[in-house]
Amino acid sequence: xxxxxxxxxxxxxxxxxxxxxxxxxxxxxxxxxxxxxxxxxxxxxxxxxxxxxxxxxxxxxxxxxxxxxxxxxxxxxxxxxxxxxxxxxxxxxxxxxxxxxxxxxxxxxxxxxxxxxxxxxxxxxxxxxxxxxxxxxxxxxxxxxxxxxxxxxxxxxxxxxxxxxxxxxxxxxxxxxxxxxxxxxxxxxxxxxxxxxxxxxxxxxxxxxxxxxxxxxxxxxxxxxxxxxxxxxxxxxxxxxxxxxxxxxxxxxxxxxxxxxxxxxxxxxxxxxxxxxxxxxxxxxxxxxxxxxxxxxxxxxxxxxxxxxxxxxxxxxxxxxxxxxxxxxxxxxxxxxxxxxxxxxxxxxxxxxxxxxxxxxxxxxxxxxxxxxxxxxxxxxxxxxxxxxxxxxxxxxxxxxxxxxxxxxxxxxxxxxxxxxxxxxxxxxxxxxxxxxxxxxxxxxxxxxxxxxxxxxxxxxxxxxxxxx
Length: 469
Fold this sequence. Notes:
alpha/beta, Aspartate Aminotransferase, domain 1, Aspartate Aminotransferase, domain 2, 3 domains, four-stranded antiparallel sheet, globular, selenium, protein biosynthesis, PyrdxlP-dep_Trfase, transferase, EC 2.9.1.1
């Protein structure tokens, strides 16, 4: 063992190797940091020799192995953990892949805002300190009909703030059929407990009547909360109570009516025959005093939680200490403002916002994308096009299936799982599905500007296996 260890080169000798100098020049890393990683590589090999994992004789050399490890470490350091991916799944609002894609206008506004100073909390007209809440207030009012609005960092935060600020120590009435759990084990009942509000369940899982709410109201009741069940649907023997029905009862007892919409539809997809998702405007018109919804779902903007409704309650929320804790940064505000501006003209919104465009994409348009992509595809791949369905995703409209066309690729010499895994591991990563031992691509979520990269990634696979296209 000792004779093997003696063959480990000294650090100063390794620093004289041209590969060490090349790493410093190419990656613009400090000599100290690369030396530290070099020492770690040597220490790891020494440990493996001592534990018997590495055996050898007098002719063994470790230099190549050390520099191979060092090169991998430098490469890993130079690669961002958060990377762009090509979404071939067809799920438009894929939670694991970042949900909504931003519009070009929103991206440009984020870049400009991030690159320079901005008036995030400065009133240019008055020449004094301003409020970041004011930046989107007018836009939300204009497109939803709300009296006022504010933004926090996500919809879960919006729900928490409303409960904490408006119902702490008081009772909140919720139908049992609306006590939902969303991704990450986020439960309405749990967040209500954390907020200090006291949950009062009424009705049953499948049926809740107006009299259930009426009988539950007490002197301790502060709020009736409606939760839109956007991530599941109960069908059959069911009954629920609308905000419009609840509102007169709540008004008679001076109780706040609050609805958590979650998905945040501003554009009415029902006009296109897609789902039955209520819009924010509809919720407010039905009588909700406050409505909360997401920025990065059907709205098609950045991650944010938007609270809209009566000015009396919004002002109370803005004054709460948690408003500062949950506030969003200037880049989120920039992206959100640019997204909301498109909704001022509905025709503009549905043509410029990637989320609305992808959801509304017709089957024939997807077929055209496939035809264009396969026209320059290598004959190495066996292709098949078949009917399929896309999902809206993001816990939104679970009952909606969007008709699509799927491109299935295969090669008799390569297993589909291998192709699927290799596409995921490369740059850019390509996320696909496997159907009938073939790799499936849904071009609803693959844009034409991504074709070149996808072609290149597909060319890499046979090359890595020693094939020639």
